[in-house]
Structure formats: C-alpha cells, structure tokens
Amino acid sequence: MSKGGGFLTPKSIANRIKAKGLTKLKFYCQVCEKACRDANGFKCHITSESHQRQMLLVAANPGRYIHSFSDQFKQDFLSVLSHSHGTKRMFANQVYQEYIADRNHLHMNATRWTSLSEFVKHLGREGICHVEETERGWYITWIDNSPKALERQANSFLLLKKKRSS
Ligand SMILES: [Zn+2]
C-alpha cells in the first residue's frame, strides 16, 4: 500500500475529490463521471441529489472505489504506453499527456497516487516498467512480459547462441 493510500476516511476522500475537482480537475467529478462547465456548475453538481447519493456509496466503501479507480488508471496508462511506444524509453510526462488527451480518461486524483512521480515509482516497484529519475523528470520503459515477448527473447537468444557456436 502506498503512502497515504490506505488511511483515508470517507470524509477525507470526499473532501479530496471535492477539493481537487475544483482546482486541478477542471470541474470534473470522477465519482459521477461528470464534467461541469465551470466552478459554479461544479458547485451546483456537488450539492445535487444524484451526487450526494453517489458520495454515500463511496463513503460506504472508499477503499473499493480508490482501488478500482487506481486499477483502471494503471491499465489505461499502460495501454497507451505499450500500444503507442512498446518497449521504447519514454518521458513519463509525455505518456501522461497522451493519456489525458483522451477526454474520457480517468483522472489521477481519484486514484491512490497523488502525483505522476508517485505513480511512476509504483510502476518501478511492481516491475512493470524500468524507471529512471533525471533532472528533467521521470523516464519509463515498459517491460514486456507477455508469453509472446518472452518466447521472442528466448528465440533470439537461441539464434545468437547458434550463430556463435557455428
Ligand atoms: Zn458527482
């Protein structure tokens, strides 16, 4: 469990979603998956009955929501990375920009990660990517562990061995 991810009370998660919704999120409510036009619209939204009802569901089980949002975020981010760039070394922020260019993307503030670098470090810890911190920021390289890729690796290793021994 990453720092700060496991100890949120229902109230603090509600506040977190609300507060970030007003600042970083450009007035998007992740819980309802609703985008509002401006601060006023957002204010209206969070006092609406449908939002309140949704928040009660979240409050009843905040861990489950954070967990599934985090999973979804990771899955979508990695699909951008692996489909567009394969195992090329990439500037993490560039991949993130590509990820959020999809207007239906899941916002990071609904996940357990409070920043991109925290998320990148998680990918490194899990062995999903090679990660490197530079002065410019983080670089990530996707590690392809699919059976196909492993087979490819094994084959090229065998070929190399054959070549060397002949
Ligand atoms: Zn809402």
UniProtKB/TrEMBL annotation:
It comes from the Eukaryota. InterPro entries: C2H2-Znf_KIN17, DNA/RNA-bd_Kin17_WH-like_dom, KIN17-like, KIN17_WH-like_sf, Znf_C2H2_sf, Znf_C2H2_type. Residues 29-51 form the C2H2-type domain. SMART domains: Kin17_mid. It comes from Phycomyces blakesleeanus (strain ATCC 8743b / DSM 1359 / FGSC 10004 / NBRC 33097 / NRRL 1555). Keywords: Metal-binding, Zinc, Zinc-finger. This is C2H2-type zinc finger transcription factor. GO terms for cellular component: nucleus. GO terms for molecular function: double-stranded DNA binding; zinc ion binding. Belongs to the KIN17 family. GO terms for biological process: DNA damage response; DNA replication.
